[in-house]
Amino acid sequence: MKRTGKLALGVLTAAAIAVGGVAAEKAAAADEEIFIPLTVYRTGPYAPNGIPIANGWRDYLKLLNARDGGINGVKIAYEECETRYDTKLGVECYEKLKNKGAKGAVVFNPLSTGISYQLIPKARVDEIPLHTMGYGRTAAADGSVFKWTFNFPATYWSQAAAFIRHIGNVEGGLENLDGKHIGLIYHNSPYGKEPIPTLETLSEQHGYELTTYPVDHPGQEQSATWLQIRRDRPDWLIMWGWGVMNQVAIKEAINIRYPMDHFIGVWWAGSEQDVEPAGAAAKGYKAGNFNGVGTDFAVLDDIVEHVYGGDMEAAKEEGLGTVLYNRGVANMLYDTEAIRTAMGKYGDKALSGKEVRWGLENLELTEARLEELGATGLVLPTRISCANHEGEGQIFVQQWDGEQWSKVTDWLEPFHDVVRPKVEAAAKTYAEENGLPVRDCSQEG
Amino acid sequence: MDALYHVLISPFVDMATQPVFFAEVVIGGLMAGVMYALVALGFAVIFKASGVVNFAQGAMVLFAALTLVGFMEHGLPSWAAIPMTIVVMIALAYAIERVILRHLVNQPHIVLFMTTIGLAFVFEGLGELIWGSNVKALDIGIPDQPFFVGGMLLNQFEIFAAVTAAILVTLLVIFLQKTAIGRALRAVADDHQAAQSVGIPLQTIWVVVWSVAGFIALVAGVMWGAQSGVQFSLSLIAFKALPVLILGGFNSIPGAIVGGLIIGVGEKVAEIYWGPIIGGAIENWFAYVLAMVFLMFRPQGLFGEKIIERV
């Protein structure tokens, strides 16, 4: 009995040492890891959009860990937190994840304008940078006020301006916009109203008439709106929609025989999910985008090889090559390159949010670097600075051919002379309302 | 003065000067009303049998549509997938009765109502778990080509929906008025225990009623899903049915149809002629305003039974 007891004690001691050893090893490993929180929405009404983005995020981080051993040899730890696209849950996710990892979360991607608005003041206090890629507060493009928020590669205002440039191009020149009638059908929310001031300013400059058509959330029933559009017959129609509103609007446009090649959706109304319910009938519909579409990118080949063991079908089931999956990959590519940039200054080790913020603000993605990453054409070369957190703000227009999206324009320059002053004015107002200091970017290193 | 003109005069001038467009608005409203009524019918049937608003009806619409598309994606033709989905909805009705309702006999209505809230989440979660979250195209061959009549644009799909609703209501009225089960429904709704004491098989009635509600959910899911694709937001269409029920009466099948038509026309006319005055997008909440106005004058709704309780 005594011997058995001693034996048991010995086994327990050995097990404790072993477990302790493993734990210590894990803790040591965690000390050397960079932590990126992933606030996703894989469930709920917006899951069709949230899932491919989340998959793109996850797969790119997996690729870096599997192929390169992380970023400059420092492993990336990540954890998903489900928000259901709900602002309250998004803030809970932020609070839950912000202190995880060796030095806390290094960058947050809220993936929702509502969550972004809530996190902007919090992130400033917690010194964690936010990357609101293609959503959130447009004024955050002014880094002199929004030190902790980045919204490259483009904002809604730049996109609205680029749409007008595209329409001008199709009409044979901006001067031909005079007398044209452009409609904006939008989600009746702060997000949907984002392009209105830009479109109004450009309307004064170029002489087109702007009519707006709000659609209440969720947008499952829009017949009254489309009766008005049928009555008014705008020459062009821009859509700032989200979720089911997009699918219904596209179907309604087909029903009233609106010319689909004169109907342009925001980049959140330009995924495969938006057009597939209408299928071939949606042929000609256009949408903005800022990331390459399809599978013809070396980085995606690497994902197939290193993450899916060469199984292209399995990768495609997760969304590889679709608009939103590629957007997820592009998002993580930007963030991890910013981390790499920060490592250039602070060393190849686990970094803090404060250090990665510097990386974001000094990010320079050249054509050569994009080629090394296998991402030529997936995103544009980008340069971020203290004053400019948006980058070049260029987008392109893609078109649905009945089966897939194809890029149909070159990268379109927004009207910087119109958009930038508006950004600065909005940022100044925000700074005044919130008592924020305005940085002198000429003095920043 | 200018504001008064825009509210009281200008809309009517527009209606009079553009009669074809006004007719189109009214017809569009009627068609939208039919679609709302398809959802409201499911609520009305369950309410007749239990006196409870089934909060899960919208989620049942989603689940039924997801199941149908799921079967079709697995290679079943629509003629086989539809009966299969009906079987699934009947099985669910049976499970709901066995697992939940049987244990809540003679409980206050609020308990049953809370149960249906829980059921809504179960249906949504189950649907996502089994069939995934992607938007799914639903094509079972319903014609949807637009055509013109007297300068008005109509759609074959809307005509199909109206005919479907008419057939559904006829069948439901016959079922509820002319069959023994239909007559038993009212007794069950009034008092579970009393109904049981006179030999009405409560369990069977509930299975039948939830099965019928499941079938209606499938019809509504097919019609709405064909428009927007089958996706999670289908469960939100329940909110379009509530003002219809308030207006038409919760326990009236014809009320669901008439309420739907009034709400449909009312919200479209309001959106187009009065909406622009205050920035538009008023139709969602205007439907509830309209319902509340009716509620003030007829609390039981247009066709609802007036409940008189004596001390």
UniProtKB/TrEMBL annotation, chain A:
Signal sequence annotation: 1-23
Keyword field: Signal
Leucine-binding protein domain mapped to chain residues: 33-402
Taxonomy, superkingdom: Bacteria
InterPro entries linked to this entry: Leu-bd, Peripla_BP_I
Pfam family, one: Peripla_BP_6
Keyword Ribosomal protein (UniProt): no
SUPFAM superfamilies associated with the record: Periplasmic binding protein-like I
Family recorded in the similarity comment: Belongs to the leucine-binding protein family.
Descriptive protein name: ABC transporter permease
Record lineage: Bacteria, Pseudomonadati, Pseudomonadota, Alphaproteobacteria, Rhodospirillales
TrEMBL record, chain B:
Xref: CDD domains: TM_PBP1_LivH_like (cd06582)
Record InterPro entries: ABC_transp_permease (IPR001851), BCAA_transport_permease (IPR052157)
Main location: membrane
Topology of this chain in the membrane: Multi-pass membrane protein
A biological process term (GO) from this entry: amino acid transport
Residues passing through the membrane, by range: 20-45, 52-72, 78-96, 108-127, 147-176, 205-224, 244-265, 272-297
Gene Ontology cellular-component terms listed: plasma membrane
GO molecular function terms attached to this record: transmembrane transporter activity
Localization (cell): Cell membrane
Keywords: Amino-acid transport, Cell membrane, Membrane, Transmembrane, Transmembrane helix, Transport
Family named by the database record: Belongs to the binding-protein-dependent transport system permease family. LivHM subfamily.
Name of the protein in question: Branched-chain amino acid ABC transporter permease
Source organism: Ferruginivarius sediminum
